[in-house]
Write a structure and sequence with these properties.
Chain B: Keywords: Cell membrane, Membrane, Transmembrane, Transmembrane helix. Chain B: GO terms for molecular function: transmembrane transporter activity. The complex is a heterodimer of chains A (348) and B (321). Chain A is an all-alpha fold and 348 residues long. Chain A has 16 helices and no strands. In chain A, helix 2 crosses helix 13, helix 3 packs parallel to helix 8 and helix 9 crosses helix 11. The termini of chain B are far apart. Classes of the chains: A mainly alpha (348), B mainly alpha (321).
Chain lengths: 348, 321
């Protein structure tokens, strides 16, 4: 088997294993896994409404996945997508509500503001990593909690003590009557196009520009990049900033498309953490991220159908997602297994 | 409230908040000293909190007043078993330990919530009858000023937590096991050459961390919330991780950091009721973010990179240099 095939097989085997273990869990908990997975399937593809909602769910997942993947390519692990997403969400809603401008200016400015807010939240761990060698994983985790509390406090402030911000102006909204009608009045919005555009941006940036080459080089080997005359510090900071900008846009999807406002959050949205799964499954490539986001976005939305249709708690899907991450992370053992299988075949 | 009364309130509450963090952070010390990064502390704590509550609810008729204590043991056991997953992934399967830890976190909360919905048919459990009791420590409680601060109506678990820090210090620095643990975390190849089984030590360390985090979670749920739901632990595990780093991977340091974080959390929840002018004027959000901001500052300022165990996060592959 060539390396390429193995690289493709590892995520596929992980998904199968994850679903399999999920079925075993359902079986042992006294649920019927077959009707569970049928309910999941119908929750994703059942009718045009479900498909619309599923695609809507996929858009922030693509952006969160891009954020994690982009940082990974420069050797950085951005667990802070969750926090960057929240500040992006709040900023989008705030800018979207506070100004009255024609749509052609308002919407881009709002999206830009969300990206900037996320970028700012990524800048802090980036600078700390580049200048003081502080581990970005810890800083981004801490920044998540700072974001959670700060955003909640800001919502209270701007809404005058309430738990919810104002609705955004229609000129900043990503809502689309056309897409909504097409999918039986789902909340599908134009965000999916923004997300796909960003996939193209990431691909172009990484594969076709000098900056992208440097970012990847730093990810492969910092010392070699330094020796070749690249500015490693600048690239680390830049990578975190761009990663944060993607995450901020993911927040804008929720703010400008799905909800149109923001309520105080009791905990994290989970999209940022699932972004880690998306990136891992997609092997940190732009196209892979689309694939990973489609899978996890579908699973997450389809799960909502499971309590009603099959009477199974929807957390089963979170178990499956976590297991898939676990298996992808343990890819080494899958590779070993595949090699052994291969040798046996050759021996015959 | 006079200033002294404020202290009588804040100090015991801080220690109560710190106890789960101390247990979990010291669990983290064991794991990371052996060279296995354990971001999964949060998930392990969730597991402990969940098992503690469910066991307490199920067996309260059998064990009566002893229920919360036996629940702690049950939580320890289950979380320790759960942590084996992390050990297998990061030691035997050479997985990225941070990613595996993230999976443990997601899995912990998912399994706990799935089971809660299965058992109770709703998003959170019932409230437990027998919480961990508060006790007055005889004689010591009569000391003026200090008595009411430290020895009146304290949780038994808080005393245990502080004792654990010293036990952990003894184990890590004064026993052969501790020496092996640290050597495996600093230079696994050297340790291997001396005949120490790297994977055995690492497995043991991760399982200890799982057990301690489980106790930590069960203490939190059985003292603070009294039930289990999706927001019960909400970041305590990450806070413990921060305490471990803030405490420079040292049990006594972790103890100090955890006590400090307990204090910050107490301020956050009680700032509005404390009748001191300058505290009232500070918005609560600053207290909420204080532990996290301090951790970032501590990492940036006081703690150099050198303090982390050298081989932390690297799988040991025999024969490779």
């Amino acid at each position: 088997m060539s390396n390429r095939v193995v690289n493709l097989l590892v995520p596929i085997i992980s998904i199968i294993l994850g679903l399999l273990v999920g079925a075993i869990v359902m079986l042992f908990s006294g649920y019927d896994p077959v009707s569970g997975y049928i309910a999941l399937w119908n929750g994703i593809f059942g009718d045009s409404y479900a498909i619309g909602e599923t695609i809507r769910q996929i858009s922030p997942y693509i952006l969160a996945g891009l954020a994690v993947a982009f940082a990974f390519r420069s050797g950085l692990f951005n667990i802070g997508v969750e926090g960057q997403l929240m500040v992006g969400w709040f900023t989008a809603v705030y800018v979207g509500a506070a100004f009255e401008l024609p749509m052609i200016i308002h919407l881009p400015i709002t999206l830009l503001a969300a990206a900037l807010a996320g970028a700012l939240w990524g800048l802090v761990p980036g600078i700390l990593k580049a200048t003081l060698k502080v581990h970005e994983v810890i800083v981004t985790i801490m920044m998540n909690y700072v974001a959670l509390h700060v955003v909640n406090a800001l919502i209270k402030t701007v809404s005058g003590g309430s738990y919810k911000t104002d609705k955004i102006q229609p000129t900043a909204s990503l809502r689309s009557d056309f897409l909504s009608n097409l999918t039986d009045y789902s909340t599908l919005h134009y965000g999916i196009f923004v997300a796909l555009a960003m996939v193209a941006v990431m691909w172009f940036l990484l594969e076709k520009t000098k900056t992208g080459f440097e970012l990847k080089a730093v990810g492969f080997n910092e010392n070699a990049s330094q020796y070749a005359g690249m500015n490693v510090k600048k690239n680390i900071i830049l990578s975190m900033v761009i990663s944060g900008a993607f995450a901020g846009l993911a927040g804008a999807m929720e703010g400008l498309g799905t909800f149109g406002s923001m309520t105080t959050q009791g905990g994290f949205t989970g999209i940022g953490f699932d972004g880690i799964a998306v990136a891992l499954l997609g092997a940190n490539t732009p196209l892979g991220v689309i694939f990973g986001a489609s899978l996890f976005g579908s699973l997450k939305y389809g799960a909502n159908n499971m309590p009603n249709a099959a009477n199974i708690p929807l957390e089963i899907v979170s178990i499956v997602v976590a297991l898939i991450i676990f298996f992808v992370a343990s890819g080494y053992i899958i590779r070993v297994g595949l090699q052994r299988l291969n040798k046996k075949k050759e021996a015959k | 409230m006079s200033f002294l009364e404020v202290l009588y309130f804040i100090i015991p509450t801080s220690i109560a908040y710190a106890a789960p963090l101390i247990f979990t952070a010291i669990g983290g010390v064991f794991s990371e000293r052996s060279g296995v990064v354990n971001i999964g502390l949060e998930g392990l704590m969730v597991m402990g909190a969940f098992v503690g509550i469910v066991f307490n609810l199920a067996f309260v008729d059998v064990f009566g007043g002893w229920t919360p204590w036996i629940s702690l043991l049950a939580a320890m056991l289950v979380a320790a078993i759960f942590s084996i997953m992390h050990a297998v992934a990061s030691v035997s399967f050479r997985a990225d330990q941070v990613v595996s830890g993230v999976a443990i976190n997601m899995l912990g909360i998912a399994i706990a919530l799935f089971s809660v919905k299965m058992m109770f048919g709703k998003g959170q459990t019932d409230f437990i009858q027998e919480k961990i009791p508060r006790v007055n420590i005889p004689i010591l409680q009569d000391i003026p000023v200090l008595g009411p601060m430290f020895f009146k109506s304290v949780y038994g678990t808080s005393v245990l937590a502080i004792a654990l820090a010293f036990v952990a210090w003894f184990v890590i620095y004064k026993t052969p096991f501790g020496l092996r643990l640290r050597s495996v975390g600093e230079h696994p190849m050297a340790a291997d050459t001396m005949g120490i089984s790297v994977s055995k030590i690492r497995y043991t360390a991760v399982i200890i961390s799982g057990g301690l985090a489980g106790i930590g979670g069960a203490i939190y749920s059985q003292t603070m919330t009294g039930d289990f739901g999706h927001a019960t632990i909400n970041g305590q595990g990450f806070m413990a991780l921060a305490a471990m780093i803030f405490g420079k991977w040292h049990p006594i340091g972790a103890l100090g950091a955890a006590l400090f974080f307990g204090f910050a959390q107490t301020l956050a929840i009680s700032a509005s009721s404390i009748d001191i002018d300058f505290i009232q004027k500070i918005p609560a959000v600053y207290f909420h973010i204080l532990p996290y901001v301090l951790t970032i500052l501590a990492l940036a300022g006081f703690i150099g990179k050198a303090n982390a165990p050298k081989a932390n996060g690297e799988p040991y592959i025999k024969g490779s240099r």
